[in-house]
Design goal:
The structure holds two protein chains of two kinds. By secondary structure, chain A is an all-alpha fold. Chain A is 73% helix and 0% strand. By secondary structure, chain B is mostly helical. The chains are: A mainly alpha, B mainly alpha. Chains A and B meet through helix 6, helix 7, helix 10, helix 11 and helix 12 of A and helix 1, helix 6, helix 7, helix 12 and helix 13 of B.
Chain lengths: 315, 325
């Protein structure tokens, strides 16, 4: 409740009067604020490095087929060995190259994080706008649904589904994370819509005969989108964590290599005390990628929220 | 009076939500590919025993009758027998519940209290080194990948340094020793609990610290703080008695909002540390296709989540008299 109130008061400072193309200027202005933010810069740099990793994931298999993350096995090695010139980060229990798995994991992490976040933010924005705009029964129904989903631990529900339906494919996991993550977004968007609903420009559109759909998507949506973008960064974080945790417990998509799955292999094959070169990299990667998206989100929060900016300080 | 009505309304909501969960779970179990009967009846049972159980669960009846049987069995505590343990599921779950509650509540209360305390200090030193250090370490620990952190903790503190046991909740030789008094046993559990507790604590306290810090900074701008200063009250009194209690309210809210997250974390922690709790039992039963146990653990976790949400709501309404729903 309080959070909604805070958000509403904050965003009242008229992003509502946007003219067409004004957004480019706003974007530049936002970027100039963002640049001053230390955490934001660190986060962006780290993300850039991870993106580079994801891009590089295509290279090792081209060099030599034994560097394929899943199927490639070093013909001379059938157990886990430490770093060497041949395998920079060593190999796993059946002689697969850890570095190429790590690079492929970056690709999966981005794919899972960004697509799940995009879907959940899309759902959350649309549902939040409809709930806020329609009010009354629709609002009540949608928000109770949101409450209900919000209290469910997504990871455990996915576990149950894995038990009943067998192996889940990576896209099913992504879709499910999205279905579980929209309520948080929709609450904030709803609060924002409520404050926009009675602004003069919406009234004007209504009087001039615009349909509800047109008002929602043409007049309200541009004003809530900055908030949606902000929430997207936080959604990416939680999506990556849920997928990694699921894979860690042994219920990931067996056709993909994710960092969580690499950790599961270390753990299940009993290498955690023997192979730090294998235990450390995937965990550091998951932690750092979540950290950098989180820092990105906080920095964007500051760009969008002038009140935080004035406080300045360290973060 | 109003508070009581609010709690009553929340209770009704919770019961409705729980029924929805119960029904969805029922449908999922019946509609998932494969034979629903094989999900409730251990394939290793003799045909006579199996027939008896099929009758008890009404698995030979039409779907709506099965649903009624399902509800009846739920309220009388008949969840069937675990495939793996061969015991009634209720008994297993009942054994595990206290362990989960012990670890879960201790970790949440501890991390919230420490988070509030450190957040207060950070906000007081805003912009200085203490603040930077605290904010940064909160950000970093908060984003650690939990199972990995747990593995690292085990590796460093249990394996390398050998300070703590690697797994489990009790040492058998102490608990089987008839001479051992209650204190030794309690200390033994504590000894096993420190690592999982520390893991959960490290993951959770950061977010509470950050929330407390920013909420404290907001509160310090309020008029009553200015008044306090004008009256010449010592800064310490203003901080601890005027600002902090109000600033802590959003932390309580966030405990409620992050409960689902904490439950996920609890299950992962229990699994890695082989702490005999419900979360671990759920993971275990899912990996071993022990459907009756999985179903009951899941329902119990749902109850725990809903009830702790209620507790947080009541606590919030009680702490903040300005808010009446």
């Amino acid at each position: 409740m309080t959070r909604e109130i805070i958000k509403v008061t904050v965003f009242n400072n008229d992003i509502g009067l946007s003219e067409r193309f004004h957004w480019i200027g706003r974007l530049l202005e936002g970027w100039s604020i963002y640049k001053k933010n230390l955490l934001g810069k660190i986060g962006l740099t780290l993300l850039f490095l991870f993106a580079l990793m994801a891009l590089c994931s295509f290279i090792p298999p081209l060099v030599n087929p034994m560097y394929q993350p899943m199927a490639g096995v070093d013909p001379d090695i059938s157990y886990s060995v430490g770093p060497s010139m041949r395998h920079w980060l060593g190999t796993d229990f059946m002689g697969r190259d850890i570095l190429s798995q790590l690079l492929a994991g970056a690709r999966i992490a981005f794919m899972v994080g960004v697509s799940a976040a995009f879907m959940s933010v899309f759902l959350g924005t649309v549902i939040g706008m409809i709930a806020g705009y329609a009010g009354r029964f629709t609002d009540n129904l949608l928000m109770r649904l949101a409450d209900m989903i919000m209290v469910m631990p997504a990871l455990l529900v996915l576990l149950m589904l894995a038990a009943l339906f067998g192996q889940l494919s990576i896209w099913f996991i992504v879709l499910f994370i999205a279905l579980f993550r929209w309520p948080g977004v929709s609450r904030v968007i709803r609060a924002q819509t409520l404050s926009l609903k009675h602004r003069p420009f919406v009234e004007a559109a209504r009087v001039s005969g615009a349909s509800h759909l047109r008002i929602i998507f043409r007049h309200i949506m541009p004003n809530v989108l900055p908030l949606s973008f902000l929430y997207m960064t936080f959604q990416v974080t939680s999506a990556i964590i849920v997928e990694a945790a699921l894979a860690f417990l042994g219920f990931g998509d067996p056709g993909t290599v994710s960092w969580g799955m690499m950790l599961q292999w270390v753990w299940k094959t009993g290498h955690m005390f023997r192979a730090p070169y294998w235990l450390l990299p995937p965990g550091i990667c998951i932690s750092l990628i979540t950290l950098s998206f989180y820092m990105l989100g906080r920095a964007m929060d500051e760009v969008l929220d002038p009140r935080l900016r004035k406080e300045g300080g360290t973060d | 009076m109003e508070l009581r009505r609010y709690i009553g309304r929340r209770l009704v909501q919770i019961v409705i939500i729980f029924f929805v969960i119960l029904t969805v779970l029922f449908l999922l179990f019946r509609l998932a590919p494969g034979d629903p009967v094989s999900r409730m009846i251990d394939p290793n049972l003799t045909p006579e025993d199996a027939a008896l159980l099929i009758k008890e669960f009404g698995l030979d009846q039409p779907l709506w009758m099965q649903y009624l049987y399902y509800l009846k069995n739920f309220f009388t505590g008949h969840f069937g027998f675990s495939f793996h343990y061969g015991q009634p599921v209720v008994q297993i779950i009942g054994d595990r519940l206290p362990n989960t509650i012990l670890l879960f509540t201790t970790s949440i209360i501890l991390s919230a209290l420490v988070g509030i305390f450190l957040g207060k200090i950070a906000s007081w030193h805003k912009g200085k080194k203490t603040d930077t250090f605290m904010t940064l370490s909160a950000l970093v620990t908060h984003t650690f990948f939990l199972p990995w952190l747990a593995l690292i903790m085990i590796w460093v503190f249990a394996y390398k340094l050998d300070w703590f046991p690697i797994t489990g909740m009790i040492s058998e030789e102490i608990w089987l020793d008839p001479e051992a008094c209650l204190w030794t046993k309690a200390l033994d559990v504590l000894h096993h609990m420190i690592l999982p507790l520390a893991t959960l604590f490290l993951i959770h306290f950061g977010s509470y610290l950050l929330i407390m810090r920013s909420s404290m900074l907001d509160t310090l701008k309020e008029d009553y703080i200015v008044t306090g200063r004008a009256k010449g009250l010592p800064e310490k009194v203003i901080r601890n008695h005027h600002a902090a209690p109000n600033a802590a309210l959003p932390v309580v809210t966030s405990v409620g909002l992050s409960l689902a997250f904490s439950i996920n974390g609890g299950a992962l922690t229990e699994t890695v540390f082989t702490w005999p709790g419900i979360g671990r039992e759920l993971v275990f039963s899912v990996s071993h296709n022990d459907y009756p146990l999985a179903q009951a653990s899941f329902l119990l976790i749902a109850i725990v989540v809903l009830l702790s949400n209620l507790v947080v709501d009541i606590l919030y309404a009680y702490l903040d008299p300005r808010i009446r729903y």
